[in-house]
Amino acid sequence: MRKKTSKQEVEIENGNVFEQLRLPEPEERLRKARLMNVINAAIKRSGFSQKEAADVTGLDQSDISRIQHGRYSTDRLLNVLVRLGIGIELVQRHGTRGDVVIEVRELARVR
Q1: Is residue 101 within 8 Å of residue 94, measured between CB atoms?
Q2: What is the rounded end-to-end Cα distance, in angstroms, of the chain?
Q3: pLDDT tens for residues 11-20?
Q4: Disulfide: which of 17, 59, 99, 107 matches 63 by Cβ 3.0-4.6 Å?
């Protein structure tokens, strides 16, 4: 997939897009993105508004908004998953090309 920006053309390949864009801490960014995807999918599946998700997790609505926009630490994202009753499996390994592969899989609802 090709994406045009005002400065340059970026081709998104398989793997870690954050590494391809030469952003700092690409593995951490990818890990957070995968965790956010699980949280956002759970909120959507439950039909929660941001306010309802905040009530369930004990957070503020502004915190839920930050999660949905990627402005939350990995530790806090993991804590939100616990509060939502969602188990995950997080695997970080080296791929066949020597790149770091990060997988996050939702296991089952605990509640």
Answers
A1: yes
A2: 39
A3: 545 678 888 8
A4: 59
Please list, in sequence order, all residues whose beta carbon lies within 8 angstroms of the beta carbon of residue 92, skipping any fewer than 6 positions away: 27, 31, 100, 101, 102, 103
Total-model pTM: 0.72
Asked if 85 and 110 count as a contact pair (C-beta separation under 8 A), the reply is: yes
For the domain made up of 25-109, give the CATH fold. Answer: 434 Repressor (Amino-terminal Domain) (1.10.260)
Angstrom distance (rounded) from CA 58 to CA 100: 33
CB 10 within 8 A of CB 1: no
Among the listed residues 98, 100, 99, 60, the one whose alpha carbon sits nearest the alpha carbon of residue 90: 100
Angle at 79 between CA 76 and CA 81, to 5 degrees: 115
Query: For residue 102, which of 19, 10, 21 has the smallest C-alpha distance?
Result: 19
* Chain segment 48-80, per-residue pLDDT in tens: 999 999 999 999 999 999 988 878 888 888 889
Kindly report, residue by residue over 83-108, the tens digit of the pLDDT: 888 888 888 888 888 777 888 888 86
